[in-house]
Amino acid sequence: MSQPQMDATSLDRRSQILDAALVCFAKRGFHQTSMHDISAEAGISVGLIYRYFENKEAVISAMANRHKKEISEVLERARRAPTLLESLEILFTAHCCENEPRVISAFVVDLYAEASRNPRVADLVRDVLQTAMDGVTDLIARSPEAESATYGLKPYELAELIFAVSRGMLMRDVLQPQEMTAAERRARQLEVTRRLWSLLFKQESEPAYA
Amino acid sequence: MSQPQMDATSLDRRSQILDAALVCFAKRGFHQTSMHDISAEAGISVGLIYRYFENKEAVISAMANRHKKEISEVLERARRAPTLLESLEILFTAHCCENEPRVISAFVVDLYAEASRNPRVADLVRDVLQTAMDGVTDLIARSPEAESATYGLKPYELAELIFAVSRGMLMRDVLQPQEMTAAERRARQLEVTRRLWSLLFKQESEPAYA
Amino acid sequence: MSQPQMDATSLDRRSQILDAALVCFAKRGFHQTSMHDISAEAGISVGLIYRYFENKEAVISAMANRHKKEISEVLERARRAPTLLESLEILFTAHCCENEPRVISAFVVDLYAEASRNPRVADLVRDVLQTAMDGVTDLIARSPEAESATYGLKPYELAELIFAVSRGMLMRDVLQPQEMTAAERRARQLEVTRRLWSLLFKQESEPAYA
Amino acid sequence: MSQPQMDATSLDRRSQILDAALVCFAKRGFHQTSMHDISAEAGISVGLIYRYFENKEAVISAMANRHKKEISEVLERARRAPTLLESLEILFTAHCCENEPRVISAFVVDLYAEASRNPRVADLVRDVLQTAMDGVTDLIARSPEAESATYGLKPYELAELIFAVSRGMLMRDVLQPQEMTAAERRARQLEVTRRLWSLLFKQESEPAYA
DNA sequence: AATGAATGAGGCTTCATTCAT
DNA sequence: CATGAATGAAGCCTCATTCAT
C-alpha cells in the first residue's frame, strides 16, 4: 500500500526484485532467504526493496501473485494448442524451460508449504489452482479426444487427476539431482504426460507413442 | 549420532521430542519453528533437546527418518490388504488419521522443500520414495486386478502415476482449510483413490462405484 | 577480511570498537567479555560490531594486530632515544601511560594465554616478539654503552634477557592492586629498568643511581 | 565449605579432579573449560565434582592453591641444592618436567590473567610469589657465590630480577610450538638460567660453562 | 530515487548447577 | 557415594526493518 507509483519504471524495479527473489527463494527457500540475499542478487541496496515492497511478506505475496500470472499465461498457451495432448504437454513442462515462464519446482513446493500457514498465500494458491482447473476442465469438455466418456469420469474429475499428477511430478522434481538439465527434465515430464494422456483419453486402442 | 544412550528411556525422550517437533513443524514449518517452540510443545526445557539431538538439523533429519519408518509401516499394511484397491486406499489415506501414522501433509510438503536444499534430507526422501515405489510396483505385479496390461503400461509405470497422484493430493491437502476434519479429508482421498483405481485397473466395464 | 569498506569512517568505527574491546578485555578477559559488553562500552548496538568484524575471534585477532602496531611504534620511539638506557625506559614503561599506546598489562597476559591455544594469535604474538627482539638487538649492537662485551653475552642474548624481564614485570603488574596509579607503576618499572641496565651494561664501576 | 570430610579418600578424589582440571585448563584455559570437560577427563560424573568443590570457581582456587604448594616444593628442592646455580636451575626448569611438579606454562599464564580479575586468586598468587621471592632472597643472601655485592644490588633486588626473568620465560614458553618436547624446553631454560647466573653472580671471570 | 549504516529482537546453542535415583 | 538427566540463563550471531544522507 505504500507503493505510490505504478508507472513503468516502478514495475521494472518490482520485476527486477522479484526476479532476484525467485532465484533466492528457489535456492534457499522463503525463510532462509534474507532481504540482503535478494538485494545482492538484484544488485541493489536493501533499502530499495522497501521502497517497492512493504516487507518481506509482501515480496512473498507478490511472488505468489506472479506465479498466478505465469500460470495464467501457461494456461492461455495451453488453450491455444491444437490438440488436448499438446495442451497437456505445455502444462506439464512449463517449469522445465530454462527461463521465461519461471515456474520453478522448488519455489512452487515452498509456495504450497507457505500456503499451509499463511492464509493470504493460501488464498492466492487456491485461486491459481481453481482458475487452472477450470481452464483445463473447459479444455477437456471441448476436446474431441475426450468426447467418449472416459469410464464415466466427468471433465472436472479428469482435470483433478491431471493436476494431481502435475503437482506430484513437481514434488518429485525437487528430488532430482541439480545436475539434471532442463532438457532432461522436460523429457521426463513429456513421457509421463503422454502416459497419462493415453490412459485418460485413448482407452480403445494402440499405444500412444512408440 | 553423538547420543551415547539408546535405552528405552532415551528412545522415549527422543520420541517425545519428535512428537512435539512434528506438531510444530506441521504448524509453522521447519525453519519457522524455534527450538523453544519444540521444547514448549514437549513440555521440557530447551537444553534437554540438545542431550538427545546434536542440533536442529539433527531433529529435522530424525523426523525425516521417522517419516521413512512410518511410510514403511503403511506400505506393510498396504501389502497385507486383500485387494489392490484396498491397498491403494491405505496408501492414500495414511496421513488422514487423526494420529497414529502421523504423516501430516504440511510436514511432508515441507520435507520435500527441505530436500530440495538439504542433500541429507534429499537422500532420505528419495530412499523413502524408491522403497515405496518398489513395494507398490510389486503389489501391482502380483495383483490379479492388474493382470490385463493396462494400455501397455508396466507395473512400474502405473506405480509412478499412482505416487504422482498421491503426492499431488497431499499438496492440495495443505490448501484445505484447517477446519476440515480428518474424516472429511479421508473421504476426499478415498474418492480420488477409487476414481484413479477404476481408471487404471478397470477399464472395460461398468462404473466402479455407485 | 569480509569488510568491504576501508574508508576513513569504517576505520574510525573499527577503532572505536577496538577501543571498547580493549577496555573490556583488560577488565574481564577475552572470553569473559561478551559482545554485548563491547557494544555497550562502545555505545553502539551489538549488531553493528558484526558489520566491522566477522565474529568475536576476529575482534581478538584485530586487537592482537593493533598490539603489534603499537609495539612497533614503541620500538620506533625507543630507537630514536639518545641513549640505550632511555630506549629501555621507553620499552619498559610503554604500558604505564594512562592511554596513548594502550598496551595494558592484563590484556597482554590474556593475549599470551590466548596465544597458547589459538594458532592465529600465537603467530601474531610471535611475530611481534621477534620484531621487537630484532629491533632491540640492533639497538644494543649499535650502542656505545654495550660496546664492551658484557661477559661474552651477544647482543641477541642480552635482548632475550631484557625481554624476559620486561614480560616478567608485566605479569607481576597484573597482581598489583588496581588502585595503583599509572605514575606509580611507571616509577616501579623505571627502577627495575635502571637496575637491569646497570647490571647489563655498566659492570665496571660505581652504583648506577644514588 | 560444603565439603564435609577431608579424609584420605576425599583428598584422593580432589586430587583426581584437580589433575583432570589442570589438563583441561592448560589445554583450553579456565573459562573455556566446562565442568563436563573436567569430569570427562577425570572419568567421573559432573555431579561428583560438586561433592568435592562448591563450584567452578572453587576448582580454580584450589588449582591456585595447589600451584602454591607445588611452588613451595620446588622452592624446598631448590633450597637443598648444593650451589646457587643449581638452585636456579631447579627453579627455572620446574615446569619442564613431563609430569610430577605440574607447573605448566599455559596454566600459570592463565592463572595470572585470572588473578588480574579475581581478587581471591590474586591474593593467592601474590602470596606464592612473595614466599618464593623470600626464599630465593634468603638463598642468595646465604650463598657464597653472591657474596661480593653485585654492583650494589641487594639480594632482594636480585631475586626480583630472577623472578622477572623466570616469569618472562614462562610467557615466552606458551608461544613455542606444541611439538617441542619437555627435554627441549628444559635445555632452553637451562641455557638462559646459566646466562643469567653468570651475569648476576660471576662478573669477574671466565665463562661459566663450555 | 537510492544507499547502507544502524538497531535490537530473537534464534541457536552451551554450560554451570541441581536433584531424583 | 555416585550418576547424569534436567533446567534456564546467557552468549554469539543473524536479519527484518528504519532512516539520515
Which helices and strands occur, and which strands form pairs?
Four copies of one chain form a homotetramer.
Chain A: H1 8-28, H2 35-42, H3 46-52, H4 56-80, H5 84-93, H6 105-115, H7 119-142, H8 155-173, H9 182-201
Chain B binds a DNA duplex (21 and 21 nucleotides) through residues 5, 9, 13, 34-36, 44-48, 50-51, 55-56.
pLDDT averaged residue by residue of chain A: 87
According to CATH, the fold-level topology of the largest domain in chain A is Tetracycline Repressor, domain 2
Biggest sheet architecture of chain A: none
Q: Uncertain regions of chain A: pLDDT < 50 for 5+ in a row? A: 205-210
Structural class of chain A: mainly alpha
Look at the structure and give the CATH class of the largest domain in chain A. Answer: Mainly Alpha
Question: Count of helices of chain A?
Answer: 9
Please indicate the percent range of residues of chain A in DSSP E strands (runs of 2 or more). under 5%
CATH H-level superfamily of the largest domain in chain A: Tetracycline Repressor, domain 2
Give the total of domains of chain A.
2
User: What is the CA-atom radius of gyration of chain A, in angstroms?
Assistant: 19 Å
CATH architecture of the largest domain in chain A: Orthogonal Bundle
Percent of residues in helices of chain A comes to 55-70%
- How do the helices and strands follow one another from N- to C-terminus of chain A? HHHHHHHHH
Cα shape of chain A: elongated
Most extensive protein-chain contact, per-chain counts: A-B, 47 and 48 residues
According to DSSP, the number of beta strands of chain A is: 0
